[in-house]
Amino acid sequence: MSAPRPTAEVPWDLSFLRVGTLATAAVAGVAAVVVGLSLGWPDAVGVLVGAAVVTAFFVFSGVVVAWAGRIDDTFTLPAALGAFFVKAVVLFAILNALPEDGWLDRLTMAWAVIVGALLWSGVQLRWVWTRPLYYVTPPAPPGQATVPPPPDGPATLG
Hints:
Layout: H1 15-38, H2 41-71, H3 76-97, H4 106-130
């Protein structure tokens, strides 16, 4: 029987959610104005709703995967796949619930979802590529040596 695995000491970094949300808001705001003036306001609403759906889905996935990773790293893949399944079902329900000739253009919304997903993927790629991800704890800088914390159990000899 093996000992229980310790939970992650370092919290999962969800700072990419803020960057992705801000980037999506900026792109969607500009795109909604351009699309509204060129194609019509139902299309502009489709852009905004599509951007909101993508943002909500990426935030949901990020929080679910981070929550699973705090429990145990081996839970992150099942959590990500489960979140993907839930998002696919919700997106299907949203698209089917919208009328064909309604207050927003479904085709424009679908394109906004595609563009938004690509934008969020780019944000996540940049976030991963520019972060120092350590597989082991880096040594302390010279002159700033720290005393390691005491072990969890009682001290023994041998």
